[in-house]
Specification:
It is a peripheral membrane protein. By secondary structure, the protein is an alpha+beta fold. The chain has helices at about 60-75, 80-100, 110-125, 135-150, 150-160, 160-165, 170-195, 205-215, 225-255, 260-270, 285-300, 335, 380-395; strands spanning about 1-5, 5-10, 20, 35-40, 310, 315, 320, 325-330, 395-400, 415, 420, 425-430.
């Protein structure tokens, strides 16, 4: 799908997304080959409505996104410099993984700390030691909140916020967690303010503080302390959870299908060898590995729903009248599991992304980073992290399940905001 002006358009030949309305109108399913709904950039979701970049509306969203994209690029997003940071952090992760010495462990915490350090280095200007209390707080908040948001409690709260405000349950913990993360970010912002040099910004926070100062006389400015705190929180959340969750899905799939794991390792050994870490330049020569990573993203479908858009006027759709103000969600899982686009969508099969010559092939129905104007601004970073982390780990280790491979369950534990893999332990065998 693509957004053209104020219209969300589904091109001919692409996977056909389902639509789900929030509010008075609800439906899902496939539309005709071309579906056009007039929508704004606006939306609301009670759990997630904050003044940061991810969940803002209208002009504020456009201004904050444009600014954030530019600053992230200035600090290496999608460039060689950020690749060097990932490779460095990957080295620290490999050291931690070796300390497991073949004993069973749950990889969630270890992966989350490492992945989070990449975006933290851009935002705060430094990486954290793995036992740093600030990093541990970030990981706890993000993991706990993502799990709750992907549970029935999260779904219920978004449907009945005014009612569930008065009902005890794990959903109440989300706001406390976000408050703890906000306090951590506020402390870092104060440290930055005390040492700020507008002519020599060190990181994202420095750039945002400078922008606030530049626009302090503008009463209509979107740059103030609240948007700094929430935009920073949005970036940390998005830059930590999705990649870490995808890697855990990958571990499960590769343990369930050891022949696929072995073929990826063979390609790594042939193209890269053992004397150096894989780099992004190697990806073009590793079509099977690239296909496996894409299939993990398709099959896991970590974020099954696009962020909502809001209908800007009454719209007729398939015999229904969608009232102005209705929030519309694109169901990305209907694209990733469309049998017209993937031969056997219910099966994990890297051949979905390989042609007859075993070369990598793209699919127009592949959109794990969402679709439309709210396309994930960290897509390039996430793609780099997934390739560099997974290849570095498989170059050094084989992933071994504690039980039989065929007993591994790839169905998600919870499905709401995200599809969470079931908790698991594994052993790493050094190669």
């Amino acid at each position: 799908m693509e957004v053209q002006g104020r219209h969300l358009t589904q091109p001919e030949g692409s996977g056909r997304a389902g639509w789900k309305g929030l509010g008075k109108f609800q439906t899902s399913g496939r539309g005709p080959p071309t579906v056009i709904l007039e929508m704004s950039y606006q939306w609301s979701w009670p759990f997630l409505f904050f003044p940061g970049i991810a969940f803002s509306n209208g002009e504020r969203w456009k201004v904050l996104r444009r600014f954030s994209v530019q600053i992230l690029r200035n600090f290496g997003m999608g460039k060689r410099s950020i690749e060097e940071r990932i490779l460095e952090e990957g080295g620290f992760l490999l050291e931690e993984l070796r300390k497991t010495e073949g004993e069973p462990f749950n990889p969630l915490f270890m992966l989350s700390r490492s992945v989070s350090n990449i975006i933290c280095s851009v935002i705060f200007g430094k990486r954290f030691d793995y036992d740093d209390e600030r990093l541990l707080t970030i990981i706890h908040v993000i993991n706990d909140n993502f799990q709750i948001m992907s549970s029935p409690w999260g779904e219920l709260y978004n449907l009945f916020p005014s009612l569930l405000d008065w009902v005890p349950g794990p959903h109440q913990r989300i706001f406390q967690n976000f408050g703890n993360l906000r306090d951590l970010i506020s402390c870092s912002v104060r440290e930055h303010q005390a040492t700020l040099d507008p002519n020599s910004p060190r990181d994202f926070i420095d750039c945002f503080l400078t922008k606030i100062a530049q626009e302090k006389e503008n009463p209509l400015s979107h740059f103030h302390m609240d948007t700094l705190l929430m935009t920073t929180q949005n970036l940390i959340f998005g830059g930590t959870e999705t990649v870490g969750t995808t890697l855990r899905h990958a571990f499960l799939a590769l343990m369930k299908y050891p022949k696929i794991q072995a073929r990826v390792q063979e390609e790594i050994d042939r193209v890269v060898g053992r004397s150096r870490l894989p780099t992004l330049e190697d990806r073009a020569a590793m079509p099977y590995t690239d296909a496996v990573i894409h299939e993990v993203q398709r099959f896991a479908d970590v974020i099954p729903m696009n962020l909502p858009h809001r209908v800007i006027r009454d719209t007729a759709f398939r015999g229904f009248l969608i009232p102005e103000g209705t929030d519309i969600i694109t169901l990305l899982n209907t694209v990733h599991y469309d049998p017209s686009q993937f031969l056997k969508p219910q099966e994990f099969n890297p051949e979905h992304f390989l042609d007859a010559n075993q070369s990598f092939k793209k699919s127009p129905a592949f959109m794990p980073f969402s679709a439309g104007r709210r396309l994930c601004l960290g897509e390039s970073l996430a793609r780099m992290e997934l390739f560099l982390y997974l290849t570095a780990i498989l170059q050094s280790f084989s992933l071994q399940p504690l039980g039989e491979p065929e007993d591994i369950d790839l169905t998600p534990l919870g499905s709401g905001l995200g599809n969470l893999p079931r908790p698991f332990q594994l052993r790493l065998l050094e190669r």
